[in-house]
Design goal:
Blueprint (H helix, E strand, L loop, with lengths): L8 H20 L4 H23 L2 H21 L1 H12 L17 H13 L4 E5 L6 H4 L3 E6 L2 H8 L9 E5 L2 E7 L14 H12 L3 E5 L6 E5 L2 E5 L4 H12 L10 H12 L5
Parallel strand pairs: 1-3
Antiparallel strand pairs: 1-5, 2-4, 3-4, 5-6, 6-7
Length: 277
């Protein structure tokens, strides 16, 4: 690729560096009071600067620059704790870590796979079903509906015995936890006679639906994936990569979200039905 002769490469590099710095700070400050104030001040300053430039208000421009200096100092004093937290995240390269959730609060396939592998390392038995085209509502009705954000801590609380919800399966829909303590159908496949109840339940659900079911053995810590009635076991360093690929196929909406606010509300209405009076 050739660079046009009129382009200043040094200027382009400087702009990219400035963009990355500003983007990292804004991303680290997202959701905090400091981030909201910083965004508001930036929009206000840009609007005033454009206004004074277009109408050639030189006196107003000088006053605006002086006010921005005092505003920056006061902002540092007022939001010192938030600024310290933001800078610590940037310094620790926190903005470059793998995201756990998307803009809609749905867990990413990488985060779900990482949580499952940590359950496997602790030999915490787990049974997780990912809903795809066929609804799992009938099986969710046999358990306890949660409608919660997925997290490693929540998974531990559900699958750690002797807690009330540890027995049964967990269902997920679009990256969210739908229900726990669910009863899944047990497969009668003679090839699975030597397997435990969790593995046979995973295979049974995958036989009757198109769901992807992940099982963690509490005896060996191995991870198994049930799909279309077949049970595949994974272990070793390649297990997490294989798990990410499977979960990514089961949660394609995480990659093609777009503007789905209306669709999400409509889908919840369809799944739950109208409220009883």
């Amino acid at each position: 690729m050739t660079i046009p002769s009129g382009v200043n490469v040094s200027a382009v590099v400087q702009i990219l560096i400035l963009y990355l710095v500003i983007y990292s700070i804004l991303k680290a400050a997202k959701g905090s009071r400091f981030g909201q104030v910083l965004m508001g001040v930036g929009i206000l300053a840009a609007s005033m600067a454009a206004f004074t430039y277009v109408f050639h208000f030189d006196v107003l421009s000088i006053i605006l620059r002086a006010l921005l200096v005092y505003l920056a100092i006061s902002t540092v004093v007022i939001f010192q704790p938030e600024i310290r937290r933001v800078l610590s995240q940037v310094g620790a390269f926190g903005t470059f870590e793998r995201p756990k959730y998307d803009a809609y609060g749905a867990a990413t396939p990488e985060y779900v796979a990482d949580a499952i592998m940590k359950l496997a390392a602790a030999k915490t038995g787990a049974l997780i079903a990912f809903e795809r085209g066929i609804s799992l509502r009938g099986y969710e009705d046999t358990g306890i509906r949660l409608d919660a954000r997925f997290s490693l801590e929540l998974a531990k609380c559900i699958f750690t015995p002797p807690l009330p919800l540890h027995d049964g399966g967990l269902t997920m829909h679009n990256g969210h936890v739908s229900a726990a303590h669910c009863v899944f159908p047990v497969s009668n496949n003679p090839e699975l006679v030597g397997h435990g109840l969790r593995h046979r339940a995973a295979a049974g659900l995958s036989e009757e639906t198109d769901a992807l079911v992940v099982v963690v053995s509490e005896e060996t810590g191995n991870v198994s994936v049930a799909h279309n009635g077949k049970l595949l076991r994974y272990s070793g360093p390649q297990a997490e990569q294989s798990l990410v690929r499977w979960i990514s196929k089961a949660m394609p909406s995480n990659r093609r979200r777009g503007n789905r606010l209306f669709a999400k509300v409509f889908e919840r209405f369809i799944r739950k039905g109208p409220q009883e009076k």
